[in-house]
Amino acid sequence: MPLPALTGLDPDALAEWLKAENEPSFRAAQILEWVWKKKAASFDAMSNLPAALRGKLAESFRLSALEHTYTQGSADTTRKFLFRLHDGRYVESVLIPANPALYGEKSDRRTLCVSSQVGCAYGCKFCASGLDGFTRNLDASEIVSQVIAAEQISGERVDNLVFMGMGEPLANLNHLLAAIALITGEKTLQLGARHLTISTSGLVPQIRELATHPQQIRLAISLHGATDEVRQQIMPVNKKWPVAELFDALDFWNSKKGQKLTLEYILIDGVNDSPEQATILARHARRTQAKVNLIPYNTVEGLDWKRPSDARCRAFREILKTAGVTANLRLEKGGDIDAACGQLRLKQETKEGIIGSP
Ligand code: SF4
What we know:
The chain is of the alpha/beta class. The protein is 37% helix and 16% strand. It has 2 domains: 6-60, DNA polymerase, domain 1, CATH 1.10.150.530; 67-351, TIM Barrel, CATH 3.20.20. A 10-stranded mixed beta sheet has the order 1-2-3-4-7-8-9-10-11-12, sandwiched between helices. A two-stranded antiparallel sheet has the order 5-6. Helix 7 (204-211) runs parallel beside helix 10 (243-256) and helix 11 (275-288) packs across helix 12. The structure holds iron/sulfur cluster. Residues 120, 122-124, 127, 129-130, 166-168, 201, 222, 341 line the site of iron/sulfur cluster.
């Protein structure tokens, strides 16, 4: 087993470790500052720590839970980072420089899309992450390290986080909540919970559980079909938790949380983009006071759906707008750099023979 990563250690656990090592307690604040604020690249860079303590830290911990291996994209566009984990697996994070249409944030903001699992068991039909099934959950340090690494590489502060990368975050709820505690902690990354959005394919029990979590985290639902008949062609999870159960859980969410829900809806030509689906979607959105993000389908290698014409996308949005629903139609950023989740990792693992080998 690899050494634990310092980025997975909460401040209390760090204080305990220092006590056990007979180190003064004030060292905790210094180490936390190096890890979370200054984002030190090595233990040696922690210049106000005695060499002996740096040595003990290096014997007991890794600094980060992942290694940056590749960046796709450039500084003023969407950038995709590929990270290698201790077991040779890969995950990816996508840094989106401005995304005004997505969550209503100002246009000078940076949103990081983070992975929560290696692979995914849910097999949504538009998504490359599920093509080779599920491998394992990420632990808290592997989730958090993506944020720290993205800030280190870009030299920019991440303003918003979306758990929308590889994996179903709510299928990894315990590690996800431990990561969120570190991301939002006053002594750690200090990002406000309101700047965090969890995107789920619709795991009803976990939505209900998360609804009672005290922090005002945002929730986005990968809906992609307004009726069971259409949705289950795209989202196999719908067989387990059909549309009616999902929206009951969203009513419960609304009874507990003050944040507006988002319904994500990828428009796929001839599959889910009919006026009837738009009308029913508008009903769901009004019932849950949700806004709708319409995303024209982005071609995925190996899958054969098509993107609808712009006119058809606009007509779909008009039905929602006429019904009084806030609906964004966005041209997907980063479509030219494999930004659909899981594509870059899939290519790398296939190249190395991790995926596809007998
Ligand atoms: S969209 Fe999300 S839940 Fe669905 S297969 Fe892809 S990673 Fe998994």
